[in-house]
Design goal:
single chain; 429 residues; alpha/beta; Adenylosuccinate Synthetase, Chain A, domain 3; Adenylosuccinate Synthetase, subunit A, domain 2; four-stranded mixed β-sheet; 32% helix; globular
């Protein structure tokens, strides 16, 4: 049985939680492989209940699925405990959640540095969530990070925190004129929090390998999206990890040859949160329409999402970078009621037409979208359950996106509910 990667193919917020939830009943493991509580998934159950998940994989809402916070994730202990408590208060069984021993813990000094740095940058800020994700990843790469397994040995934890604060306090006090942080207070706080999750710490890479040997299906769930990847996104306006499919192997401990399906999630239009280039962004009433109809507010941050038309250049790029085999197209219903629906098929940069992602940061900032227009549809498509149920113009739109993107659109979302999905091809067949 396969390991499946589920990846956002735009700038995140494409509806990955819906896709994970759809597959949840047919997979045995769901693994979050990167990012932190700077991202989120929304899942809507058949009874209408909404769940906003931030660190915990979407499979937590499906009984019998084992959920893993992988080694590539950075975990804020306080956020984790709050999320667990919130789920348990709503009678969700969280006993099948595991945390990789190698996942890094987000510490109070990461949050402090993230916030003061963004304020210091002013107009040059990256647009982070201020949750300390970037500084935590910096410490990981600098080999001075604190891992989940460190809470099992107080002496190691204390040495790491004290060593980190020797530098962090210098930065906070001498550069940003902030108060120094106390090592004992941080260590005591983390150890107290650890009482609520240390029983979940495990060698998850080994467990996932054994699960695949038993022919169990493993779903590797990314957060954010392709264009926020630190290597392949619109740098420097990116996240601090690798949401792309290659990051799934690194962030989970599952070998790349065991991945057989890469499912990309695409919105029927495009959104992005935070700063950075966005060639198809709309600043008029049509952008406001997409934002209102699509409920475009960040799950984790509450920030309004910038909205624009579908960008086929980005979709083709995502197909290539991730090796996408299938697409799940979400929020097609949001486009109902439009007379025409534009699609960006290429860019014009300094008078020259290009059809692929620009190589330089300068060019992507200067890119102007080249549109073709498709006829719209007026029908309410939220009750459609087969492709043939859709109006012809909606079907034509989907087929054109499929042609431009370079991968089969196997599933189509026509509403937020778990059952509001059209399946054109079973990716697990």
């Amino acid at each position: 049985m396969p390991a499946i990667v589920l990846i956002g193919a735009q700038w995140g917020d494409e509806g990955k939680g819906k896709a994970t939830d759809l597959l949840g009943g047919r997979v045995h493991w769901v693994v979050r492989y990167q990012g932190g509580n700077n991202a989120g998934h929304t899942v809507v159950l058949p009874n209408g209940d909404h769940f906003a998940l931030h660190l915990i994989p979407s499979g937590i809402l499906t009984p019998e699925v084992t959920n893993v916070i992988g080694n590539g994730v950075v975990v804020d202990p306080a956020v984790l405990l709050d999320e667990l408590s919130g789920l348990e208060d709503r009678s969700v069984d969280t006993s099948r959640l595991l945390i990789s021993a190698d996942a890094h813990l987000l510490m109070p000094y990461h949050v402090a540095i993230d916030k003061v740095t963004e304020r210091f940058l002013g107009n040059r800020k990256i647009g982070t969530t201020g949750r300390g994700i970037g500084p935590c990843y910096q410490d990981k790469i600098a080999r001075v990070g604190v891992r989940a397994q460190d809470v099992l040995d107080e002496s190691i934890l204390r040495r790491k925190v004290e060593a980190a604060l020797e530098v962090k306090n210098q930065i906070l006090t001498k550069i940003y004129n902030r108060r120094a942080l106390d090592a004992d207070q941080i260590v005591d706080g983390v150890l107290e929090q650890a009482e609520g999750f240390k029983h979940r710490i495990a060698d998850t890479g080994l467990m996932l390998g054994n699960a695949l040997d038993r022919d169990e299906v493993v779903l590797l769930e990314g957060s954010q999206g392709t264009m926020l990847d630190v290597d392949h996104g619109t740098y420097p306006f990116v996240t601090s990890s690798n949401p792309t499919a290659g990051g799934a192997s690194v962030g989970s401990g599952v070998g790349p040859t065991r991945i057989t399906v890469v499912l990309g999630i695409l919105k029927a239009y495009t959104t992005r949160v935070g700063s950075g280039p966005f060639p198809t962004e709309l600043f008029d009433e049509q952008g406001a329409y997409l934002a209102k109809q699509g409920g475009e507010v960040g799950v984790t941050t509450g920030r309004a999402r910038r909205c624009g038309w579908f960008d086929a250049v980005i979709a083709r790029y995502a197909t290539r970078v991730n090796g996408i085999t299938d697409y799940f197209l979400t929020k097609l219903d949001v486009l109902s009621g439009l007379e025409t629906v534009p699609i960006c098929v290429g860019y014009e940069i300094d008078g020259k037409r290009i059809d692929d992602m620009p190589m330089t940061q300068t060019d992507i900032h200067h890119a102007m979208p080249v549109y073709e227009e498709m006829p719209g549809w007026w029908e309410d498509i939220s009750e459609a359950r087969t492709f043939e149920d859709l109006p012809k113009t909606a079907r034509d739109y989907v087929l054109r996106l499929e042609e431009l993107s370079g991968a089969h659109i196997s599933c189509i979302g026509v509403g937020p509910g778990r059952d509001q999905t059209i399946v054109r091809r079973d990716i697990l067949a």
